[in-house]
Description:
Mean pLDDT of chain A: 78
Structural class of chain B: mainly alpha
Order of helices and strands of chain A: HHHHHHHHHEEEHEEHHHH
Largest sheet of chain B: none
Number of domains of chain A: 3
Largest interface: A-B, 65 and 64 residues
Shape of chain B: elongated
Order of helices and strands of chain B: HHHHHHHHHHHHHHHH
Number of helices of chain A: 14
Oligomer: heterodimer
Low-confidence stretches of chain A: 323-329
Distance between the termini of chain A: 60 Å
Radius of gyration of chain B: 25 Å
Helix content of chain B: over 70%
Amino acid sequence: MNWTTVVMDDYxxxxxxxxxxxxxxxxxxxxxxxxxxxxxxxxxxxxxxxHSLARMLERFAPGLVLLVVCFSAGAVAVPMLAPSIPFGSRxxxxxxxxxxxxAVLASSVVPVVFVGASFLIADVLLFRLIDHMSDxxxxxxKFVDRLKITTLWIFGTYFACCLxxxxxxxxxxxxxxxxxxxxxGVTSRSLRAGIASYEVWWLNFRSWTRPGQAEFIIAHGDRxxxxxxxxxxxxxxxxxxxxxxxxxxxxxxxxxxxxxxLERLVREIPTAAAPRKALITGYMTEARWSDARRHVLEYxxxxxxxxxxxxxxxxxxxxxxxxxxxxxx
Amino acid sequence: xxxxxxxxxxxxxxxTTVVDPMTGPVWNGRLIVALVIMISYLWGYSRLVDIDxxxxxxxxxxxxxxxxxxxxxxxxAGSAYLNLSGSRAVSAARVxxxxxxxxxxxxxxxxxxxxxxxATGQSVRTMHRVLWLDPPFRGSAxxxxxxxxxxxxxxxxxxxxxxxxxxxxTCAYLQQRDPNHGCPARSYAQxxxxxxxxxxxSYVTLSxxxxxxxxxxxxxxxxxxxxxxxxxxxxxxxxxATQARRQNDVVAEHRYLWAxxxxxxxxxxxxxxxxxxxxxxxxxxxxxxxxxxxxAE
Lengths: 329, 297
């Protein structure tokens, strides 16, 4: 998680297609970043002084490879074989013995080291390939320079887009406008490579600007108040949208429309007391007195013995919002 | 040579120079071998990291059984694991079981028995009762090994002769315990649907498998297809209600549970779930209706 991720996830500009590219591009950019780090490491000046060490490391690569093979088999085999060690050979199972080795191998230390080493080797091989592509050092240098400039442009464009989003939202002083919509579903994109995994959930909803079409934003559990996997087709949503200082509307939050949800529940299950009470309370909070009164009367007809609730609700109605005679009809 | 344009021949020669350790610089070859092995290791690590710990029986026999399982020989793996299940190694790895684990064991046992007796449809429906249980539940190690064996035996039968619906259900069970690379339950469910074998049940298996993978919209669409074939299908209705509950879709849950209550001829488990929902909703009229119907039996 870096600041660009925060910008993308927090200042969500709804889109039908184009903006999704910016979030999806994180994975190749992440790989490119790791290659750049590996390149910085492999071209450190210290390697000029430690040239013989570097050569030796490379010379003993077969030995290291053999070690890698032992690691890969040992991570699974050692913990399984440890219990079958004869009782007399306890020293093999001691803290420095097989079990300890197995514990280290089975932990995530080895994969982390391997991921780093893989990127380093990939970088070295890539630049050796470039070296082979030209006999002329000048043209080789030119090629490397072009590669660096291209990489800088890619990163620059991405960060510029993030800055635009951040500027559009952070400096936005416009009021929040609430639009009614409904979820169409969620789309999950995930990638797993070794120990590294990446997952992003997109929330698809009916567009409030283009009827009949869907738009999507990155799902943000903390902001929206629900996890993406709980979304179902037709789930009522309230989209809190702000205009954006650069004129790009962005979604502050896509919350569940609780009132609509309760209305549906009461329509489907009229005898359910709990959602109707919650709906009445919701209407009163929104000062929708006539709706609240209608439901109180319906509730009273269904549950005539629960006078306490009816009385308590009607007492909280402001004077003039209802006729007193309606209460106990 | 024109350095600004690189011909395909030139690239080929250079690539073989770098990639082929026999003709190219020895050091590059060694680095490539190291890289390939590390990538293989990382692949292997990701293959094993999410697997149920009961697949790792700490003994040489356990290592053999795991190897057989990973290579896809489920029948041999299941037998190897079952041979170990009485051993000290499995007992040492055993976690105390709770009431739900006992239920899982009983249900899987009866599903396997029903399959042996030829009641394939009933066996699939019994497996569904295990598959839609909410975690945490595990069942015993022996039960897991029995399912591995059952799946392996079904896999060995030629496609046109085997019960793909049952294979899909057993695979869905294994997939819950080896989520990333387990038995391909979805493929077998689709195979069963294509063969016209227990189609609504196979759609339910497909739906459960999709739900386990986090594809909830597709999962609900799959159970919708089962209900389109038979709107009163008991298993499909119960799973649709479970799915709706997991997504907090109370209206759908309520609708499906009432339908399931009728379709299952007043199954006590469905009745209990419906009673719980009606209590949460404060629906006294619904509770009275449920009690009347229960009493009328």
